[in-house]
Design a protein that fits this description.
Blueprint (H helix, E strand, L loop, with lengths): L8 E5 L3 H13 L5 E5 L2 H9 L12 E5 L7 H8 L8 E5 L2 H11 L5 E4 L4 H14 L1
Parallel strand pairs: 1-2, 1-3, 3-4, 4-5
Helix pairs in contact: 2-3
């Protein structure tokens, strides 16, 4: 990402409409200008990332913000099913529970670039953007 304010395409995998609104607001407050695509469960996330089904014409995401607690298929299962096919896409795990999120993150190894506790704050978003951008 050449311009730190142009964060490209973000896939937000989140089933809570309030958290979707909050995340979009925090991205804006952090001074970022991404195009945010939202899916509400793990199955849709897989389809979006793999550009299949109703998502055949979507852009490949530059970053995935993945809620760990999803209906139908949780975030950990999404990561397991994706395996190494998204090693070029930074995945940031979102968790509303420090205890559960921390345990799951340990099991995720290097499959996630970072983890944010919900509700996320603008300064945390900026820090993660810097971390992901530095890894490019």
């Amino acid at each position: 990402m050449d311009d730190p304010n142009d964060f490209g395409n973000i896939l937000l995998v989140e089933d809570n409409p309030g958290d979707v609104r909050w995340t979009k607001e925090m991205l804006k407050e952090a001074g970022l200008n991404p195009t945010v695509h939202v899916v509400t469960d793990g199955s849709e996330a897989l389809d979006f990332i793999r550009q299949r089904g109703e998502y055949t014409d979507v852009p490949r995401p530059d970053v995935v913000l993945l809620d760990l607690h999803l209906p139908r298929m949780d975030g950990d299962e999404v990561l397991t099913r994706l395996g190494d096919e998204v090693s070029d896409i930074p995945i940031i795990a979102l968790s509303g529970s420090q205890r559960i999120g921390a345990v799951k993150l340990e099991d995720m190894g290097d499959r996630v670039a970072a983890r944010l506790e919900k509700p996320i704050e603008p300064d945390e978003v900026r820090d993660v953007v810097q971390l992901v951008d530095d890894d490019d």
